[in-house]
C-alpha cells in the first residue's frame, strides 16, 4: 500500500515537471508558437498561422451642403413677388388714406428694382401733401428719369403752394440741406423770386452758409439771376440784402 502511494506521488511530480517544461518554453501568458508539421518525406513544413480578421471601419458619406445659393431664376421670382407686394401696399395706402404704409416701408420701396413701384410711391406721397416733402426728396436723385421728374414736380408743387412767406423760406432751406440734385435745387431756389428781395437774399445767404455743396452752387446761380452780377462774398450779399430791406421799407412808408 505504501509503495503504491509513493509511485503515485512520483507520477504526479513527473507530470508537474513536464507541464513546467512545456510552459517554460512558450512563456506564461504568451501565445503558443505554432508547432512544425512534418510531411510524408520527413521534411518539416512551416506551420500555418491563423490571422485574426480586423473589423472594417464603415466610411460615412459626406453630408450634403445646406448653404447652397438658390438658382438665379428663383431669386428673380422672389424679387417679382416682393415688387408685387410693394405695389399692393402703395395702392392700399391710397385707398385707405394711410400714408404711414409708404413711410414705414420707404427704404424697401426706394430699393425696389421696379421703377413703376417707385413712381407710384412718389405720386402717392404727392397726393398726401407737402408734409411728406422730406420723404419725396429721396426720389429726386432716383436712377430712373421718369421717377426723378415726378419727384421734382411734386416738390416744386409743394413749395409753390405755400402761401406764407416764412413757411416757404423754411421749406426751401430745408430742401437745400439735403438735396443734391441740380435741377431740383435750381427749381426750389427759383421759388424765391416770388418773395421780396430782402427775404430772398437772406434765404440765399443762409443756403450758402448751411446748404449742401450742390445747394451752395445753386444759390450762387440764383443770386446772379436775381442781381445780374456774380456772387463774390458773404459781405457783398449782406450789403445787397440790407439795401433791399431799406428800399422796401421806404416803399411801404410812401404807400
Written overview of the protein:
There is one protein chain. Helix 5 (115-128) packs parallel to helix 7, helix 7 (145-160) runs parallel beside helix 9 (182-190) and helix 10 runs antiparallel to helix 12 (234-254). The chain has 255 residues and is mainly alpha-helical. Among the domains are: 76-161; 164-255, no CATH class. A hairpin with a 5-residue loop joins strand 1 and strand 2. Helices cover 65% and strands 2% of the residues. The protein has a two-stranded antiparallel sheet with strand order 1-2. It is built from twelve helices and two strands, in the order H-E-E-H-H-H-H-H-H-H-H-H-H-H. It has helices at residues 2-26, 72-96, 100-103, 106-110, 115-128, 133-137, 145-160, 165-178, 182-190, 197-210, 213-227, 234-254, and strands at 37-38, 44-45.
Short descriptors:
255 residues, two-stranded antiparallel ribbon, elongated
What does this entry show, briefly?
The protein has helices at 2-26, 72-96, 100-103, 106-110, 115-128, 133-137, 145-160, 165-178, 182-190, 197-210, 213-227, 234-254; strands at 37-38, 44-45. It is mostly helical. Strands 1-2 form a two-stranded antiparallel ribbon.
Oligomer: single chain
Main sheet summary: 2 strands, antiparallel
Average residue pLDDT: 79
Tell the overall outline.
elongated
Strand numbers in spatial order across the main sheet: 1-2
- Approximately how much beta-strand content do the residues carry? under 5%
- Summarize the amount of helix as a percent range: 55-70%
Give me the count of strands.
2
Distance from N terminus to C terminus (CA atoms, Å) equals 169 Å
| Number of helical segments with 4 or more residues | 12
Class derived from helix and strand content: mainly alpha
Estimated radius of gyration: 50 Å
Low-confidence runs of at least 5 consecutive residues: 23-37, 43-57, 59-77
Order of helices and strands: HEEHHHHHHHHHHH
Amino acid at each position: 500500500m505504501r509503495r503504491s502511494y509513493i509511485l503515485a506521488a512520483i507520477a504526479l511530480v513527473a507530470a508537474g515537471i513536464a507541464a513546467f517544461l512545456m510552459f517554460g518554453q512558450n512563456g506564461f501568458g504568451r501565445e503558443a508558437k505554432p508547432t512544425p508539421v512534418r510531411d510524408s518525406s520527413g521534411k518539416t513544413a512551416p506551420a500555418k498561422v491563423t490571422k485574426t480578421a480586423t473589423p472594417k471601419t464603415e466610411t460615412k458619406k459626406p453630408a450634403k451642403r445646406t448653404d447652397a445659393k438658390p438658382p438665379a431664376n428663383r431669386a428673380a421670382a422672389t424679387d417679382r413677388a416682393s415688387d408685387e407686394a410693394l405695389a399692393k401696399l402703395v395702392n392700399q395706402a391710397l385707398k385707405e388714406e394711410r400714408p404711414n404704409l409708404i413711410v414705414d416701408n420707404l427704404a424697401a420701396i426706394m430699393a425696389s428694382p421696379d421703377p413703376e413701384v417707385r413712381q407710384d410711391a412718389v405720386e402717392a406721397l404727392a397726393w398726401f401733401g407737402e408734409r411728406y416733402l422730406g420723404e419725396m426728396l429721396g426720389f429726386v436723385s432716383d436712377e430712373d428719369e421718369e421717377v426723378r421728374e415726378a419727384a421734382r414736380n411734386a416738390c416744386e408743387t409743394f413749395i409753390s403752394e405755400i402761401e406764407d412767406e416764412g413757411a416757404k423760406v423754411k421749406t426751401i432751406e430745408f430742401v437745400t440741406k439735403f438735396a443734391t440734385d441740380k435741377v431740383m435745387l435750381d427749381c426750389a431756389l427759383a421759388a424765391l423770386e416770388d418773395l421780396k428781395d430782402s427775404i430772398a437774399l437772406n434765404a440765399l445767404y443762409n443756403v450758402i452758409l448751411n446748404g449742401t455743396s450742390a445747394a451752395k452752387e445753386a444759390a450762387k446761380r440764383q443770386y446772379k439771376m436775381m442781381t445780374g452780377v456774380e456772387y463774390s462774398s458773404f459781405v457783398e450779399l449782406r450789403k445787397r440784402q440790407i439795401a433791399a430791406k431799406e428800399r422796401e421799407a421806404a416803399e411801404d412808408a410812401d404807400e
